[in-house]
Amino acid sequence: MKNILGLQRATFMAELPVSLAARRNRLDRAIAMVADNAARFCDALSEDFGHRSREQSMIADIAASVGPLRHARKHVARWMRSERKATMFPLGLLGARAWVEYQPKGVVGIIAPWNFPVNLVMSPLAGVLAAGNRAMVKTSEFTPVVAALFEELAARYFAPEEVAFVGGGPEIGKAFAELPFDHLLFTGATGIARHILHAAADNLVPVTLELGGKSPVVLGRSANIAQATERVVMGKMLNAGQICLAPDYMLVPEEKEAEVVEGLTRAAAAMYPRLLDNPDYTAIINDRHHARLTEWIDDARAKGAEVIAVNPAGEDFAASNARKLPLHIIRGATDDMTVMQEEIFGPVLPVRSYQHIDDAIAEVNRRDRPLALYYFGSDGNERRRVLDRTISGGVTLDDVIFHVSQEELPFGGIGPSGTGAYHGEAGFRTFSHARSIYKQPRIDVAKLAGMKPPYGKATWATIKRQMK
């Protein structure tokens, strides 16, 4: 890995400045690598998961990778332009000029997770390549077939000094995070992010963290319950809930709780009338995560919650080794239950009630700031109150997850749900260095302003002017 990093940095420095044509060419090759091998990626994803819906893989991993890459290719010329800035009076009148140029940083490291192992490599890579950088990618050990495919294909579409992929387990990941990159992007769990920051700190590597947390759904009294519950179920059961942006728990008016649970149950049964042999429904990634989710459900039940398993076909999941898990709705979830303490990352949905919207806002605010917040309702004043009185990485109104698909919206968390952002122009800026440039006019400004000793009246005139 050190040799690859050294090679990439040397060739990067030799190439400077990185032309628009070179950036577009690399983006074109990245698009081709995914689009031309979409079927192989879908096969690899399904093999790694035990079963992964092919259509879901095409939507959430393949198309969701090609889209950002094409968007970057289309707009990179505009993003690259220097930005003129105002100068202090009266320097502009005397001929001074100031501007910002966006330079590539060099070699960017990407540590990718397992839940969307294609998209969460290629989407940040769009910004990395548009900004003119080289890239090294550490793939997840939980998706080894996808990782091996990336290594094979990258060698066909890129020289190793442009883009390189590295596989392996935790020891390789630790060594990767300790490399002196020019920027490091980590997508994954908050607990591991702490170790990533420690590893990067020794080399003062700037780090972008895309994490997760308990993203709430706040259902207003004015919400269309049938529509809202259908959209929550769609987001919760996509990838079997293994999404950093998945709705983690719901806050609903107490008098509407039963209607909400009925709506969730009806929507899940309509979308997934059966599960075990349903090609549309994805399996849990591995036995450890399946056991974890099962333990958390049992914990909630043991501590008094009502657990509703939405199993419309009455299938025997205990007798199956398919690692498929139906939607479990948890009513009466309390703070001492694990499902209300940890990010769930699976098809388990606690539903809690509130009396007043301020109670729901307080519930959100006493937890760590989430990656996303979702509000349903037509009451504009209430919507504004929820937006103004909460803090989250991003928001989708009247649906879930969809803000991530808007390329010109910065995507990122805040605090425990992440630091920094990417996507679209925000990604280009994240992976670029904003270099400030100032051009002095021909006149001796220092002398004119009294900045040269011996100091006198001109000096104090300048001071007074600056101090207003």
TrEMBL record:
CDD domains: ALDH_CALDH_CalB (cd07133). The keyword Disulfide bond does not apply. The active site is at E210. SUPFAM superfamilies: ALDH-like. The keyword Acyltransferase does not apply. Keywords: NAD, Oxidoreductase. Belongs to the aldehyde dehydrogenase family. This is Aldehyde dehydrogenase. It comes from Sphingomonas agrestis.
